[in-house]
Amino acid sequence: xxxxxxxxxxxxxxxxxxxxxxxxxxxxxxxxxxxxxxxxxxxxxxxxxxxxxxxxxxxxxxxxxxxxxxxxxxxxxxxxxxxxxxxxxxxxxxxxxxxxxxxxxxxxxxxxxxxxxxxxxxxxxxxxxxxxxxxxxxxxxxxxxxxxxxxxxxxxxxxxxxxxxxxxxxxxxxxxxxxxxxxxxxxxxxxxxxxxxxxxxxxxxxxxxxxxxxxxxxxxxxxxxxxxxxxxxxxxxxxxxxxxxxxxxxxxxxxxxxxxxxxxxxxxxxxxxxxxxxxxxxxxxxx
Amino acid sequence: xxxxxxxxxxxxxxxxxxxxxxxxxxxxxxxxxxxxxxxxxxxxxxxxxxxxxxxxxxxxxxxxxxxxxxxxxxxxxxxxxxxxxxxxxxxxxxxxxxxxxxxxxxxxxxxxxxxxxxxxxxxxxxxxxxxxxxxxxxxxxxxxxxxxxxxxxxxxxxxxxxxxxxxxxxxxxxxxxxxxxxxxxxxxxxxxxxxxxxxxxxxxxxxxxxxxxxxxxxxxxxxxxxxxxxxxxxxxxxxxxxxxxxxxxxxxxxxxxxxxxxxxxxxxxxxxxxxxxxxxxxxxxxxxxxxxxxxxxxxxxxxxx
Lengths: 287, 305
Description:
- In chain A, 85% of the residues lie in helices and 0% in strands.
- In chain A, helix 5 (108-142) runs antiparallel to helix 6.
- By secondary structure, chain A is an all-alpha fold.
- Chain B is globular.
- In chain B, the strands form three sheets. Chain B has a six-stranded mixed sheet, sandwiched between helices.
- Chain B has eleven helices and 14 strands.
- Chain B has helices at residues 44-52, 72-75, 93-104, 108-122, 137-149, 167-182, 194-200, 218-222, 239-242, 264-273, 288-297, and strands at 6-15, 18-28, 33-37, 59-64, 67-68, 78-81, 155-159, 186-190, 203-208, 211-217, 227-232, 247-250, 253-256, 277-283.
- Chain A binds chain B through residues 4-5, 8, 12, 15-16, 19-20, 95-97, 99-107, 286-287, and chain B through 15, 49, 52-56, 72-73, 75-76, 78, 80-88, 90-91, 95, 99-100, 102-105, 144, 147.
């Protein structure tokens, strides 16, 4: 691999996305969404105060709304990451652009890693920027700020990078639209098996809980999503839910602990492995 | 001995049970312009991809600029214009060149001067800051040529470089290829426009069904030159004309074969001076198109020898 060429491709990718309408459309939609969130939270705060809701109850209410917003945002982010990354190499192959580039003295892996780096910077910056803006607006309106904003945004960005990596790797062999669709299905399945796993734990169904754990290793986005929840959750919610027993803890919008360090390390290894698989598939591909 | 720009022996490529290239024997000498011809599906594009390392060979052997096929060191000295390509529409012409200069490892201080040179060569100097998305097909092809010539490569592989160009553009491309050749660049030209190949190439290689079916210099392939005259009113004694070469009558034409093509105007002047009335003059050599059709289809009945 040639770091100089990886940087050239990463720069090209950032320039490409910033010149396409998609990033600006997403940015405008995000700003509109944040404005709507601000309006909704301000209405909630106003109505709560009118109805003598105390500050403790209000804080819990706002925190739950913020988690719900983060969930929807993580879904939109995953879709965006998948559909930005899936055609990144697939469309270069379809248009023949890749032939002119790969005839230069470069490895095919340089193209895959360069694309990943450029997309990773965009996706992580977008996740962190939009998330920070939403949290900032909620804090400004309600005085509530989550206990670990950095942890929440870090896991949100990591989740988006994981989705992007899978879409990019699939796009080295599949047409862009197919790679994007498969990634979105895997993301949805990950969330579904995560919820199923939580419920199975609550009801003591070990085989189903095991299925959730296995899928979380194969496609770790749901595990990372638990990190986002943990970062957004006030300690009162953790205490109250733990007192509520296993059924209360099976709530898919609750996390009693951050993802373990071993899982985080696995996620880093997973990203590297999936990227390496994408590079290997692309190297084997006949152009 | 000077190293060949391209040298392959029995190069083969199969996609599963489909054989795209059966056996390619090809040699392009340094500074030589060689045309690679063949009908659609003959294996030309597969050959080019194998030479550039874009596809893996199934058999045979080859070198490009003295290095194994696909070698990155060799690829740093090759310029390539793909056939069906689109550059990134959202980049300007200058940015496309900067991208390829970066990929090719062209030193930064040399880049600006090199961009001026190649954009000037292809006639796009005043469009350097325009987005490629707004370019016509012909302009994109000119830009592709500029990209291929970037960094003064030792070998340029051009896949249909004039297919989207008007006659003026084609003439420009011929001049550009001759200019590259004068700088010692070897050129492999893949074109369906046989007239282009005939005008430009030192040698031609015709492939069909994955095999080389004819190759050689144009003189070797097309045979000796001749001139055919449709002329009336000549005296019986045609000795002045016989001085240019052996005479023959063929289907009402007076044929002189072999003949020095440079002397055709003198032959016409002599015929007129002898009292003849010249109705038509036809260079008697087989055209590359006729040879191509003969090789691919077999000689048609009634074709002239």
